[in-house]
Automatic annotation (TrEMBL):
Pfam families assigned to the protein according to its UniProt record, in alphabetical order: ABC2_membrane_6
Full protein name: Transporter
Keyword Transmembrane helix: yes
InterPro entries: ABC-2_transporter-like (IPR010390)
Keyword tags: Membrane, Transmembrane, Transmembrane helix
Record-annotated membrane-spanning stretches: 12-35, 50-68, 106-125, 137-160, 189-207, 219-242
Organism: Streptomyces adustus
Domain of life: Bacteria
Length: 254
C-alpha cells in the first residue's frame, strides 16, 4: 500500500530518493575532506576506508529500508494506536515494520553500493574463494545484525516510550562508527562493539580478513566468518525481547 502511494507521485519519489542519496553522501564527502589533508586514517588508506563505508552503508541501508519504521513504535505506545495492530490477523512486528514504508531509503543503499564499487575497483585484493564468499555474507549478516538492533530498540520503547533517540544512537550511530577503521578508536570501545553489541561483525572483522589485515583485538582469522551465526543469535535475542515487551503492553489505560 505504501509503495503504491509513493509511486503515485513519481517526481516526488525521485526527488526524495535523490535527497536521501545526497544526504548520506555527505558522510563520505567528510571522509574525502579528511583524506585531502592526510594520506591514511589510523593506518588505513582511502580505498580501504571506502570499503568499510560501502559495506556499512549497504548493510544498514537494507535494514533501514526493511524495518526502519520501528522507531515510531514509541508514539504508538503513547497514544494507544498500537491497539489497532493487535486485533489484526497479522504479526504486530510485520505491521510496525511496514508502517509508512519509505521506498526513498533506496537512496542510501545505492550510495553505499557506489562507494563499495569504487573501493573494489581501487583495491588490489587477492580474491581467494573464502574472500569471495565473505562479500555477500558481510552484507546479508550485517543487515541481519542491524535489523536485530532495530527490533531490540523498539522492544525497549515498550518500557521507555520516548526512547527513539536511544535506538537511533545504536542504529544510525552504529553505522557511522563502522564507517571508520577500528584503529582510530580506543580498545575498550572496539571490545564493546565486538563482544557486547557485536556491530564489528558487520564489517570490521570480515573486511579486515578480505583486505589481508590483522583482525582487531588480535582475534583469529576464523572469527571473520562468524557474521551469519552472530546475526542469527542477535535476531533470536531481539525476537525474545520483542515478545517480552509485547506481552507487557497494557495500552494507555484511558
Amino acid at each position: 500500500m505504501w509503495i503504491r502511494s509513493t509511486m503515485a507521485y513519481r517526481a516526488s519519489f525521485v526527488m526524495t530518493t535523490f535527497g536521501n542519496f545526497a544526504a548520506t553522501a555527505l558522510d563520505f564527502v567528510a571522509i574525502l575532506l579528511m583524506f585531502s589533508r592526510v594520506d591514511a586514517l589510523g593506518g588505513w588508506s582511502l580505498p580501504e576506508v571506502a570499503f568499510l563505508y560501502g559495506l556499512s552503508g549497504m548493510a544498514f541501508g537494507l535494514a533501514d529500508l526493511a524495518i526502519g519504521s520501528m522507531d515510531r513504535l514509541g508514539s504508538r505506545v503513547r497514544d494507544g494506536t498500537l491497539d489497532t495492530l493487535l486485533v489484526r490477523p497479522v504479526p504486530v512486528l510485520a505491521q510496525v515494520a511496514a508502517d509508512r514504508f519509505g521506498l526513498r531509503r533506496l537512496g542510501r543503499v545505492v550510495q553505499g553500493a557506489l562507494v563499495l564499487g569504487y573501493a573494489l575497483a581501487s583495491l588490489d585484493i587477492d580474491w581467494t574463494p573464502a574472500r569471495v564468499l565473505l562479500m555477500p555474507w558481510m552484507v546479508v549478516s550485517g543487515c541481519g545484525i542491524f535489523c536485530a538492533v532495530f527490533v531490540a530498540g523498539a522492544a525497549f520503547q515498550f518500557v521507555a516510550q520516548d526512547a527513539s533517540e536511544v535506538q537511533n544512537a545504536f542504529t544510525y550511530g552504529g553505522t557511522t562508527l563502522l564507517q571508520y577503521p577500528p584503529t582510530v578508536f580506543a580498545q575498550d570501545l572496539v571490545r564493546g562493539v565486538t563482544f557486547v553489541l557485536p556491530l564489528a561483525f558487520v564489517n570490521w572483522l570480515p573486511a579486515s580478513y578480505v583486505l589481508g589485515r590483522p583482525l582487531p583485538l588480535e582475534l583469529p582469522g576464523w572469527v571473520a566468518f562468524a557474521g551469519p551465526a552472530v546475526a542469527v543469535a542477535c535476531c533470536a535475542l531481539a525476537g525474545a525481547a520483542w515478545r517480552t515487551g509485547l506481552r507487557a503492553y497494557r495500552s494507555t489505560g484511558s
